[in-house]
Amino acid sequence: MKTKSLALASALVCAGLSTAVGAQSIDECKKPLADEYKEVGQTRLRVLFWDVYDAFLYTTDGDFDWSQRKQQRKALLLRYLRDIEAKELVETTSEEWEKLGFNSQEQSQWLDKLSEMWPDIKEDDCILLKETKEGYAAFYQGDKSLGVINSSQFTEQFLAIWLSPGSRFEEERDELVGKQ
User: Within 13 Å, how many C-alpha atoms sit on residue 21's CB side?
Assistant: First the structure.
């Protein structure tokens, strides 16, 4: 497997090991999806020898096609396998956008909003992004709403980190979108 970002790896080392106090079950994590979403695929992100998270992609019909992404409502569930500070998640989001070549004027506002809404993560915590009918990003932790970013451009750029053919996590992307 190809080597992942050294910056992410060092952030994970700093995060340390965790205990699963107050861990969420996968069923709790999926509560906001109800029965309207079907799983497309899943993957595990490993950086060097650390397991970071399991990712699950859902759509309303259980299929995903990048070229049809604007017509498909999606949900991305990340179940973390270690403690990670919210600040690290936000910084990693910014770095991934930079690697994908995204440069929206609103990015700093979006990152500020993420910093306000995302909690520090403990092992077995989940964060779910559920795309609204308007294309906005509604974030949940279990059945608790963390907030909404009212921008379809944000939703597309955020999901592109995992779903874009340009994602640097190519093998994981293929598993997530059901290609493997």
Answer: 4
In angstroms, the CA 118 to CA 89 distance is 9
Tell which residue, 18, 5, 10, has the closest CA to residue 125.
Answer: 18
The stretches of the chain forming alpha helices (DSSP H) are 6-15, 26-29, 86-100, 107-117, 152-163, 170-176
Chain CA centroid to CA 28, Å: 17
Give the side-chain half-sphere CA count within 13 A for 61: 7
The tens digit of pLDDT for each residue in 109-155 reads 999 999 999 999 999 999 999 999 999 999 999 989 999 999 999 99
Structure confidence by residue, pLDDT tens digits, 30-80: 888 878 899 999 999 998 888 999 999 999 999 999 999 999 999 999 999
Exposed/middle/buried for 111, CB within 10 Å: 0-12, 13-18, 19+?
middle
Query: In angstroms, rounded to a whole number, what is the distance separating the alpha carbons of residues 35 and 50?
Result: 33
The strand order across the sheet containing 74-80 reads 38-47, 50-59, 74-80, 126-131, 137-141, 144-149
DSSP state of 71: G
Task: Report angle CA 150, 144, 57 to the nearest 5 degrees.
Answer: 70
Query: Using the 8-state DSSP alphabet, how is residue 121 labeled?
Result: B
